[in-house]
UniProtKB/TrEMBL annotation:
Name the UniProt record assigns to this protein: Putative NTPase (NACHT family)
Annotated Gene3D superfamilies: P-loop containing nucleotide triphosphate hydrolases
Pfam families: NACHT
Organism: Limihaloglobus sulfuriphilus
Entry-linked InterPro entries: ARM-type_fold (IPR016024), NACHT_NTPase (IPR007111), P-loop_NTPase (IPR027417)
Length: 1082
């Protein structure tokens, strides 16, 4: 057994104190001992509040249980034993502040009187306690005493709620059960969630440069831990098999484990589809929702209403609801109208295209497995997996496919698999092989298994063919009608399970374990019927057949090539959607080299428009990746590295070709720092192999150290958006001394995103706390909090002058978190009084609220309270009328995080409004450069603007072309179209800035103006272009005939908006296809 001296070297002082206490005291409460030991083994650092919760729950003692106990004599022994243990625990390792308060709530003391052996206090109301006295003769006496001051029960002080704990426990078990099903028996702790990206708007970029698949946003790394204390609303969008459901379930489990009081509720969209959401208030929605959770707690309705601010909604499967086009957006709108905060909604990309311009929503997406994660996942089977999937690398990077590849390799069934369809085929064969895979010890004959398989195939097709389609969730009645075997037998094969939707009527459905299984089985059924193949090809633009068509091509090499040839020979449109589709189908089967070259050569002739280029790059890669990488290497060798990187930056492959990577890295060493930045910002660093990642990062660090200020900042910005291995973070520390404060801030922010702990880092941050630049001090404070460096010596910083209001909002809560003793509090508050530029009322309100909420108002004198608030009656008002807020350390964390941003949104808005007024005055200047710069600054304020701003911007449309152009961009960026008459927009389309005309055209469609004069104006503007932009979705079929003789389009936007159209309004496709073919002019 380790000695205490050995143990002390490994642990913090506080942790060591607890370990010593457990060894020195033989606690009578065994549950307490076990729980404490478990907690200590799992945690390197001890959170006292969470520890006290464990202690309290271990006793199973509450004021309710005590008050309901009839026989206090028999109960007294338990009270005596547990309170004695509790008191010793509290006295041994609680902070003085905590101990002072807790001992008033639930404590025990021993009287020196002869008759009385012990006395135990239990708070029953805020104003009285029950006193249990035990005498030598064994008798006990219960009395009630009125308290001289208000006391808070311990369970309330610790924010302990038995219903909350029970509800979260039920959710936790639900998450664990579902995760086990999703992970196919693998350990939950071994599951590593995929990395995330967040899509943001870059005001400086034209949306034409962004691709359809990117939802017209710029994507940056996003740390998953940001969702554990979820604020705001997120759309998680990723394609089939990426693991959206598994991600949500793991997120649900991790939120519960964090024990932050939040209630993460997982729901499938189908469970709430009949709630009539959009027309109901949030409280009404919760009342309906309570029926789904009535077995979780005694009164689910009251519980949900009471805890409505703590609920996190994890809603899955928007793309799986019945319907097409507007059905998706209508369902999303209803959910968003009802749930205004703490929401993650998942969907495939096609179902949420109309939400992409909603700036109140954050778009997230799951990244594929990185090369390092793939190697870790496959372990000893990595080389086999690489060889197996050399023609279709996506099989290694998508979780569902990766699982199947690994299982087949382990079982020795992977030979000859070289495309995605063959992988599914081999996996399904494995499940239906009685010699290989056992089904609950059932003895099913081969003929019966074949019958079951055929039933699955027909059922899958029938469900998708429905209008609207039934995706993944098949109504029980359809399953019973379509299948030729009993539904119970279908459930034995592991492809699906019977699931009861938690609606009021408890509808039963057959639920496929993954939607891609249904799509594969449907493709098998279709492949055996020529009429069904023709049907799918005629409806190929309908999203429900997208994955089915890919499987269909891969099932049979001869038929697959016939399908590709048929698509290639059809009349195509100017942006070549059929050519692109044929290219995407090439990896699904063995296509003759001649056909690959035909597709590749045709693609090279397609103009490289900004909105079209990302899909063009991927089509080139998919049609013939050997020629693609040969072209890239040729570009690099001929010095056209910018163009090569541009192709690679849009590539949706999981990684780059190693030889191509090496050439790029080798060439970079001969480039100037400015050119390195220009090239590297378009490379997805995470796709590079580990060695090349480090080389790129070292190059960026050199750019920071040796480049000019602009180059240094650009390099720091790229690094800030990159996940960097902690082994090389120490190389960044010297950059903290850079002369450009903006560079320093970016580096500090980057360090805060890691778990990096280093003595040298601590010293650097201490120096930055003394910096004269308030923004650097502000970012340092935030980083210190993220890294939990609360033991920093901040006394010098406190004693220094703080001139920045926002910085003060960051510093004050940090100080309060650190300082518990009276002298420290008074020293801090005295210092606050010296801050002449500070909003005294708000800062002092933070202090007094915190002290009052934690029972520490006695630490600060009445004189200082009055001085802080400037007037005695104000201090008295806050002391008497401010409702007490119960804050544990977790809550205080949240409180401080919100203050750091800064605290008061209203103050922020006041500042923004004042700046806005100043900028609007500048718009009246005569100098064009001032006006243009001012318009840009207004956009950077990220405010929604107002009617006056719109009016001023409109007046500028008659100014010189440069000002008019900037004014139009301002209108676009601030979403001010609702304040503008369509006629003015119609005139603005004549702007000489062609890209701006495209933006306006796109905006007209987005805001759904149905004025035919505008449409005619668009026709005349783009008469030379032979395609169609049909973004305004408001016209009915009969009105389409109005446009049949008109050449109408936007050359750049036609491609991405047509994709948006067929994804959201399939009902118009046949008419539009005829129109396009009628007006075709190559």
């Amino acid at each position: 057994m380790e000695t205490l001296e050995q143990k002390k070297k490994q642990l913090s002082d506080e942790h060591f104190k607890i370990v010593k206490f457990l060894r020195d005291n033989e606690l009578k409460n065994e549950i307490l001992s076990d729980n404490l030991n478990t907690h200590l083994n799992e945690k390197e650092k001890v959170d006292v509040i969470n520890l006290l919760k464990i202690i309290y729950k271990s006793f199973g003692l509450s004021q309710k249980s005590i008050s309901e106990k009839k026989d206090m004599h028999s109960y007294h022994r338990f009270v005596s034993r547990t309170t004695g243990d509790l008191n010793r625990v509290l006295q041994s390792f609680c902070h003085n502040k905590t101990l002072h308060a807790i001992q008033l709530y639930f404590a025990t003391y021993h009287s020196e009187k002869i008759k009385n052996i012990g006395c135990h206090l239990v708070c029953t109301t805020p104003k009285e306690v029950k006193v249990f006295k035990k005498y030598k003769n064994g008798s006990t006496k219960e009395t009630t005493k009125v308290c001289s001051h208000e006391i808070t029960p311990l369970e309330e002080a610790l924010n302990f709620d038995s219903d909350l704990e029970q509800f979260r426990s039920e959710l936790k078990q639900d998450a664990i059960d579902n995760l086990r099903d999703k992970l196919h028996g693998e350990k939950i702790e071994d599951y590593r969630p995929l990395e995330l990206e967040i899509g943001t708007f870059d005001e400086k970029k034209n949306t034409a440069e962004k691709s359809f698949i990117d939802h017209n946003r710029d994507w940056k790394p996003f740390h998953r831990d940001m969702l554990l204390d979820l604020q705001g609303r997120y759309i998680l969008t990723s394609d089939t098999g990426r693991g959206k459901t598994t991600f949500l379930r793991r997120l649900q489990l991790d939120i519960i484990k964090k024990d932050n009081g939040l209630i993460p509720i997982y729901l499938h969209v189908s469970e709430i589809s009949d709630f009539n959401l959009g027309k109901k208030k949030f409280e009404s929605f919760l009342r309906n929702l309570s029926d789904l959770f009535k077995d979780y707690v005694k009164d689910a309705k009251s519980f949900l209403l009471k805890n409505k601010d703590k609920i996190v909604f994890l809603i899955d499967g928007l793309d799986q609801i019945p319907g097409v086009g507007s059905a998706y957006i209508n369902a999303a709108d209803e959910i968003l109208k009802t749930i205004s905060n703490r929401l993650v909604l998942t969907s495939r990309p096609f179902a949420i295209t109309q939400l992409e311009q909603n700036r109140d929503l954050a778009f997230l997406r799951l990244k594929p497995f990185s090369p390092d994660l793939i190697e870790e996942y496959y372990g000893d089977h990595y080389d086999i997996a690489i060889d197996l999937c050399h023609r279709c690398r996506e099989m290694l990077s998508i979780p569902m496919l990766a699982y199947m590849v690994r299982l087949l390799i382990i079982e020795g069934q992977a030979g000859g698999v070289d495309n995605r369809t063959q992988l599914y085929e081999r996996f399904i064969d494995y499940l239906f092989d009685p010699q290989e895979y056992k089904h609950e010890n059932l003895n099913i004959s081969e003929s019966k298994l074949l019958e079951i398989r055929r039933s699955y195939e027909k059922l899958s097709y029938d469900a998708i063919n429905n209008e609207p389609p039934d995706l993944q969730q098949i109504p029980f009645d359809l399953a019973h009608y379509s299948a030729s075997v009993e539904v119970d037998i279908l459930l034995k094969l592991g492809l699906s399970q019977l699931y009861e939707i938690r609606r009021k009527e408890r509808e039963k459905i057959l639920y496929f374990s993954h939607q891609s299984f249904q799509e594969y089985l449907a493709a098998v059924h279709i492949s055996e019927h020529e009429d069904l193949i023709a049907k799918v090809l005629n409806e190929k633009w309908n999203p429900k057949w997208k994955e089915v068509l890919r499987f269909l091509v891969g099932l049979n090499q001869v038929k697959g090539n016939e399908i590709i040839d048929r698509i290639l020979n059809e009349n195509d449109f100017f942006f070549r959607p059929k050519l692109l589709l044929a290219a995407k189908l090439v990896p699904e089967t063995k296509v003759p080299l001649a056909t690959q070259n035909i597709i590749y050569d045709r693609l090279l002739k397609v103009p490289k428009f900004p909105g079209f280029f990302p899909d063009l790059a991927n089509a080139l890669y998919q049609s013939n990746y050997t020629r693609f990488y040969s072209m890239i290497r040729s570009l690099i060798d001929h010095g056209e590295i910018d163009q090569a990187v541009d192709f690679l930056s849009h590539l949706h492959a999981m990684s780059y070709d190693n030889a191509t990577e090496d050439r790029i890295i080798h060439k970079l060493q001969y480039y100037s720092y400015e050119n390195i930045i220009h090239i590297v910002k378009n490379i997805d660093i995470q796709k590079l192999n580990r060695n090349n990642q480090k080389k790129i990062i070292f190059s960026l660090i050199n750019c920071i150290k040796l480049g000019d200020n602009t180059t240094s900042f650009s390099a720091a910005k790229i690094l800030n958006d990159t996940q960097i291995d902690e082994s090389i973070l120490h190389r960044l520390l010297p950059c903290l001394e850079h002369e450009n404060p903006n560079v320093v801030i970016k580096i500090i922010n980057l360090l805060g995103k890691t778990e990096f702990q280093h003595d040298e880092l601590t010293l650097h941050l201490l120096r930055k706390l003394k910096d004269t630049n308030p923004n650097i001090v502000f970012e340092t404070m935030v980083t210190c909090r993220k890294l939990k460096l609360f033991d920093l010596d901040i006394s010098e910083m406190i004693s220094s002058k703080i001139y920045d209001d926002h910085l003060s909002y960051a510093v004050i809560p940090y100080v309060l978190y650190q300082v518990y003793h009276k002298h420290g509090i008074e020293q801090v508050t005295a210092k606050i009084l010296e801050l002449s530029k500070l909003n005294i009322y708000h800062i002092s309100h933070i202090i007094l609220t915190y002290l009052k909420a934690n029972g520490l108002e006695w630490l600060i004198s009445h004189d200082i309270r009055c001085a802080l608030l400037q007037e005695p009656h104000t201090a008295k008002k806050i002391d008497n009328n401010t409702p007490p807020i119960k804050l544990d350390h977790v809550t205080m964390d949240k409180k401080m995080e919100s203050t750091i941003q800064p605290t008061f949104v209203s103050d922020q808005q006041i500042v923004k409004d004042k700046i806005f007024e100043k900028l609007e005055r500048q718009l009246r200047f005569d100098a064009p450069d001032i006006v243009i710069e001012t318009l840009g600054e207004i956009v950077c304020l990220e405010t929604c603007g107002n009617t006056e701003t719109a009016r001023i911007a409109l007046l500028m449309l008659n100014e010189n072309p440069e000002i008019a152009t900037e004014a139009l961009y301002t209108i676009l960026d601030l979403d001010l179209f609702n304040s503008i008459q369509p006629r003015i927009l119609c005139e603005a389309i004549d702007t000489p800035d062609y890209k701006l005309a495209e933006e306006l055209l796109f905006a007209i469609g987005r805001y759904k103006y149905y004025d035919k004069n505008i449409i005619e104006k668009i026709f005349s503007k783009f008469m030379d272009i032979s395609a169609i932009l049909y973004k305004p979705f408001g016209y009915n079929k009969s009105e389409l005939s109005f446009y049949t003789d008109t050449n109408f389009a936007c050359y750049h936007y036609g491609y991405s908006l047509f994709k948006s159209l067929y994804s959201n309004n399939c009902i118009f496709l046949n008419e539009i296809r005829c129109l396009l073919q009628h007006n075709q002019n190559d």
